[in-house]
Design brief:
Blueprint lengths: L1 E9 L16 H13 L5 E3 L8 E11 L5 H10 L5 E8 L12 E9 L13 E2 L6 H11 L1 E4 L14 E12 L2 E8 L6 H13 L5 H10 L14 E7 L18
Parallel strand pairs: 3-10, 5-6
Antiparallel strand pairs: 1-3, 1-4, 2-3, 5-9, 5-10, 7-8, 8-9
Helix pairs in contact: 3-4, 3-5
């Protein structure tokens, strides 16, 4: 029995999130079904991030144990061949038995894509949030600077899933724009349910002039869900990268083409 780590990507449009749910298609179910078929016995996978329904991933990482005598490259090809076309497998590597895709992660990076143009982009529309409202980019960046650090993010969590301890650490948060396209990236050790999408919804209100930065400061101290911005659509959110030290990947892991995006 060997423990493996796999670097995968998926289009979340057809899935009800990563985590297995009875009677609903999920990424975890698809992976476990394919691996169990190859293993000729049940295989359970652990994911680095439990993405919600409709959320995508370019850099999800999973770990699992199985018997496989043909080498990791053959396992990668066999696994991908038995998955739906909405899931891709970049690399599969053997790892130490103590490696856990979720617990061993140092941080997770999420990316959210916003289109500010008047026209639609038919080829990308399903993976963007179309938002044509005028924004003050300086205020948007000031908001992202404000959320960095260790804060109480109770106001930025789906109310039904609010834990006893909602303090989380944002390592970095930044905004990049090329023409009408905006990419927001947020790095943190862990995230609450819907946290990134509520952060983006609140940033939208600040950038559009409907909420002040001092209000955000109060939200990060003692805010409730009702006081924060809306939860923006899931289709524009990607689990972009998961960081480990040392990195388990032998082929560089993340494809160089990602630097273009």
């Amino acid at each position: 029995m060997t423990r493996y780590a796999a670097l995968i990507s998926y289009d979340g449009s057809a899935f009800h999130g990563f985590q297995r749910q009875r009677g609903l298609p999920t990424v975890q179910e698809a992976l476990e079904d394919a691996l169990s078929l190859l293993n000729k016995g049940m295989v359970r996978v652990t994911g680095a991030g439990r993405t919600d329904r409709g959320v995508h991933a370019l850099g999800q990482v999973v770990s699992f144990d199985m018997f496989w005598p043909h080498g990791p490259d053959a396992l990668r090809k066999a696994l991908e061949a038995n998955l739906p076309s909405s899931i891709g497998v970049f690399e599969v590597v053997p790892v130490d038995e103590g490696f856990d895709a979720r617990k061993s992660a140092l941080w997770r990076k999420y990316a959210y894509f916003i289109w500010k143009g008047d026209c639609r982009l038919p080829h990308l529309d399903e993976h963007l949030w179309r938002n044509g409202k005028p924004w003050d980019m300086q205020k948007a960046r000031a908001f992202l600077s404000m959320i960095k650090g260790h804060h109480d993010f109770s106001a930025f969590c789906r109310k039904a899933d609010l834990p006893d301890n909602a303090w989380r650490t944002i390592i970095d948060a930044k905004l990049e724009n090329i023409g009408h396209m905006i990419k927001v990236t947020i790095i943190g050790r862990s995230f609450l349910t819907n946290m990134v999408r509520i952060i983006i919804g609140t940033m939208d209100e600040v950038a559009a002039g409907r909420r002040s930065l001092p209000e955000v400061e109060l939200l990060l101290k003692s805010g409730s869900r009702e006081e924060a911005g809306p939860t923006v659509p899931a289709n524009a959110l990607f689990l972009w990268e998961v960081k480990y030290d040392p990195s388990p990947w032998t082929k560089g892991g993340y494809p160089l083409c990602w630097d273009w995006i």
